[in-house]
UniProtKB/TrEMBL annotation:
Region of interest called Disordered, as start-end residue ranges on this chain: 162-186
Record NCBIfam families: PRK11463.1-1 (NF008527), PRK11463.1-2 (NF008528)
Domain of life per record: Bacteria
Transmembrane region(s): 21-42, 48-65, 96-120
One term under GO cellular component: membrane
Protein name according to UniProt: FxsA family protein
Coiled-coil annotated spans: none
InterPro entries named in the record: FxsA
Keywords for the protein's UniProt record, in alphabetical order: Membrane, Transmembrane, Transmembrane helix
Length: 186
């Protein structure tokens, strides 16, 4: 028997992106591979050798991060003394060196190998060019024009899951707020 009341409809959930779907699976597969390789190396030699490998990777990673940070700070300091904007053109690759050092500090042999690869200058240049091209392509696809245009559209997520689109309106320096009400007179 129906009472005539309509059943509530639930809004369709937005589709998950591929990155949100496969990133956890990729991290889990990477962790399993790292643990498996460490057990293979420990079985071929002993646990002390694995400990020394992990300790050496951690120390080398810390040295690389410290060196890259000093170089980045030195480049920033020199650029500010010359009175120009800091650029990564002269000392280039500090960010990738820091990433390589961080990967060396993480326990595991695969992360150590990738970290060591990121310390090689030709690999740094290739990764940097690839990342720059990818960033430019994604930026062009997101919004035509300048980088400022990319941030003009805002999405507000309401608690019920609906997305409200809006536009950012900035106050210009010369604008003065005006009260729409007339002043009170006595």
């Amino acid at each position: 028997m129906t009472t005539g009341a309509s059943t509530p409809t639930h809004p369709a959930r937005p589709r998950r992106s591929r990155l949100r779907t496969f990133l956890p699976l990729g991290i889990a597969a990477w962790l399993v591979l790292e643990i498996w390789l460490l057990t293979v190396v420990a079985g071929a030699s002993n646990g002390f050798v694995v400990f020394l490998l992990l300790l050496a990777g951690f120390v080398l990673g810390a040295v690389v991060i410290k060196r890259a940070g000093r170089r980045a700070f030195q480049n920033l300091n020199e650029a500010l003394q010359r009175g120009e904007a800091p650029s990564d053109s002269r000392g280039g690759g500090n960010g990738l060196m820091m990433l390589g050092g961080l990967l060396l500090m993480l326990p595991g042999l695969v992360s150590d190998a990738v970290g060591l690869l990121l310390l090689v200058p030709p690999v740094q240049k290739a990764v940097s060019r690839y990342a720059e091209r990818t960033f430019e392509r994604k930026l062009r696809a997101a919004a035509p024009g300048t980088l400022g245009d990319a941030f003009q559209q805002v999405r507000i997520h309401r608690p019920d899951g609906k997305v409200v689109q809006g536009e950012v309106i900035r106050d210009e320096p010369g604008d003065t707020p005006q009260d729409p009400r007339p002043p009170l007179t006595r």
